[in-house]
Structures
1.
Amino acid sequence: MITLALSKGRIFDDTLPLLRAANIEVLDNPETSRKLILDTNQPGVRVVLVRASDVPTYVENGGADLGITGRDTLIEHGGQGMYQPLDLQIAKCRISVAVRADFDYERAVKQGSRLRVATKYVAIAREFFAAKGVHVDLIKLYGSMELAPLTGLADAIVDLVSTGNTLKANHLVEVERIMDISSRLVVNQASLKLKQAPIRALIDAFAKAVAERSEI
Ligand SMILES: Nc1ncnc2c1ncn2[C@@H]1O[C@H](COP(=O)(O)OP(=O)(O)OP(=O)(O)O)[C@@H](O)[C@H]1O
Ligand SMILES: O=P(O)(O)OC[C@H]1O[C@H](OP(=O)(O)OP(=O)(O)O)[C@H](O)[C@@H]1O
């Protein structure tokens, strides 16, 4: 049995076409079912639904053989314990610094001010501001980062941006792009040895589907 860890929502939705390319159909719809273990048309393959930030933990510790997770989540978790054979080019976005439109970020940085930065991505933010030589107080949040500058909790946020609509709706502006993000296939190291043939077949099918898509 091969177990693939996915999170509900965009990662699940964007993974379905890749699974289809490997002749795998998920038999339940996570939006309508309360099941956490989903069967597929292949008796040897199942999908487990976990929180996006829990995917690396499941894969690293053998709760799943494979998983799909954002580069952001992988960096925060630390990816050393897993193979990362493939960038799937799905759930693409970027991680950026944003501030209130009336906050002069350039000036604060030039003056060497200490910045209060709210984020779910403390490792990425710490590394980024350390490399710039900017002193920051990091405030760990688990969601709705955009609210922090609006309420006076923070001067800036480090968060994911795709269309920019969420920032715009909250009168925030993107002032720095830290890195591009997409989702990766991650594989448990022991699983790759013990279940080599089926896992290799899945990696190859995904790789082919990603390559074909990038040709379009
Ligand atoms: N707006 C977006 N556009 C494209 N990709 C995104 C966007 N937001 C997030 N992602 C990517 O999708 C991944 C999963 O995001 P999702 O919103 O499903 O989970 P989450 O709510 O961030 O995680 P958790 O439930 O663990 O807090 C992120 O880690 C990121 O790589
Ligand atoms: O630039 P945009 O296209 O507006 O996308 C950016 C938003 O997308 C993500 O939130 P998501 O929609 O996943 O909601 P979440 O807070 O539940 O993760 C992210 O946390 C941003 O808030």
2.
Amino acid sequence: MTLRLGVIGTGAIGQEHIRRCSKVLQGAEVVAVSDINVEGARAAIAKLGLNAEVYADGHEVVKSGDVDALLVTSWDPTHEEFTLAAIAAGKPVFCEKPLAMSAEGCRRIVDAEIKFGKRLVQVGFMRPYDAGYVALKKVITAGEIGEPLMLHCAHRNPTVPENYTTDMAITNTLIHELDVLRWLTEDDYKSVQVVFPRTTSKAHAKLRDPQIVLFETHKGIRIDVEIFVNCAYGYDIQCEVVGETGIAKLPEPSSVLMRKEAKLSETILTDWKDRFIDAYDVELQAFINDATAGQLKGPSAWDGYAASVAADACIKAQNSGAIEPVELPTRPTFYDK
Ligand SMILES: NC(=O)c1ccc[n+]([C@@H]2O[C@H](COP(=O)([O-])OP(=O)(O)OC[C@H]3O[C@@H](n4cnc5c(N)ncnc54)[C@H](O)[C@@H]3O)[C@@H](O)[C@H]2O)c1
Ligand SMILES: O[C@H]1[C@H](O)[C@@H](O)[C@H](O)[C@@H](O)[C@H]1O
């Protein structure tokens, strides 16, 4: 069976996901797309030689009888609306991060999914599908460095657009760590503090960059994450776990070591599309397979909610400068694996 996909949002990642679902992965075809920039949507499918229906309104894609499942790849504030619409239509939906703009918004999705009675939502947290993170988790789970005590992480983008604000460092960028570090440590956050070092001259006037986010987990692990979205030199994701008997570090993406012009060098990637290209392939193949089988297993609406509960506390901490509690309710049994 071929899963017929409708894609809402044909910008950067929308086009990437349309390409991979049409040209790289198995078991799916893109039959409908939508973007508020309709011409952009037309150009996106023409570029790939696809014959998908183009709609001006994403809700038409959700309702279309030709569409079995949805990919929501539009701007962050639109995710909740389209994900709720997909649940109401009883269709599986892969929603890019963040699931919604606040924990409250994510909770509405969780409640709607539970009321529907079956998992329909997978959140676009791709790092648990990244070979490097999988290898790191295996080392930790096998007890090779003893119990994790501290994590030192960095999330660096070379640059961000003018409309990127200080809170987006949390909701749009740190949200990846908020999910993957829960998955990695099998723990939840207890409290958070945000501190602001000297701001880089490369940031636009309204953005405070970099930021350092400091967490304590329920098991007492201390985590520091540097978010630096105008780091200028590349797209760089770092994660080092300090355990009782050793240290385990996220592998660097493979790169040819060059000796040239009196320098020894390796290339640093500059774009998220390249850094996680394989992880995106694996996460979307999993969504296609699981939606076809009728049982989603990837990052859930609850994971999206848990990340947003932490994100809300981080934003509060950005503004207060204080240590803020992270209060995640008990997970409903509906989300037991
Ligand atoms: N998982 C990841 O690593 C990752 C990477 C990049 C982006 N993202 C997420 O994917 C989403 C898109 O990011 P992007 O970089 O492609 O941004 P983008 O600006 O390139 O594309 C977003 C597209 O959504 C369209 N859009 C906005 N509102 C819409 C609506 N109501 N209906 C239909 N289309 C609408 C815009 O016109 C635009 O074409 C964001 O939520 C972002 O956080 C995730
Ligand atoms: O900060 C960016 C992240 O590094 C990417 O992985 C994407 O999620 C992108 O949307 C964010 O703006």
